[in-house]
Amino acid sequence: MSLQSLIFNTAPFALIPPAIMAVVLLRNSNITFRILSIHILISSVTEFSATLLWSLKINNIFLLHIYTLEEFALLSWFYATIITGRSWKIFFRGCLITFTILTLLNSLFLQPITVNNTYARGLESLLCMIYAIICFHKLINNTPAISKPYHNSLLLINSGVLIYFTSSCLLFTLSNYLRKPEFTDARMMLWTCHAFFSTVYYLLLFFGLWTIWKSKSYTSYSPVQ
What we know:
Elements: H1 3-10, H2 16-25, H3 31-55, H4 61-82, H5 86-110, H6 118-141, H7 148-175, H8 184-214
Helix pairs in contact: 1-8, 2-3, 2-8, 3-4, 4-5, 4-6, 5-6, 6-7, 7-8
C-alpha cells in the first residue's frame, strides 16, 4: 500500500476518538465543549452518510454544501463562547450572517449542489483561520485568568482548527485553478495533504477534549475578553 493510499484509507477513522470523547462530554460539559461535541458528532454522521452514498454510487456532494453551513455556524458559536464582549458578539454574528448569505448564493448561482463548493469552503477556511489567530492572541494574553487544563485544552483545539483550515484554504483556492486534466496529479497531491491535515485536526480535537475531561474541569466556564 502506498503512502497516499494509507493516508486516504486511515483519515476517516481519525474521527472515531474525538467522536467518543464528544459523546462522553455532550451532556455534562459547559456550553463551549458542548457546541464542539455536537459539531464533531454531526461531522461523524456526515462522513458516514457520504461514505454510504459513495458506495451506492450516488452523488454525495450536496452533503458538503449543507455541512459547510453547519460547520461554520457551530465554529462561530464555539468561538463566540470563548471570546466574549459586545463588539466580539457583533463580529461573530456578522461573519455568520454574511457567510450564510454568500454560501447560499454560491450554491444557487455559481456552484450548484452537484459540484464541489470550493468558493464557500475557501471563504470558510479563511474566516476560521482568522478566528483561530484571534483566539490564540486572546488565550496568550489571558493565561493567568484561565485554569491550566482549560487553557491547554483550548490551545490544542485551536491549533487543530488553525492547521486544518490553513491547509483547506490553500486546497480550495488552488483547486479552482487545477481543474484541467493535466493537473490530475497535482489535485491528488493536494487532496492527500488535505486528508493528512484532517487527521491531524481530529487528533488534536481528541487530545483537547481528553485533556479537559481528564482534569474534570469541563463543567467550568472561562471566557476571555
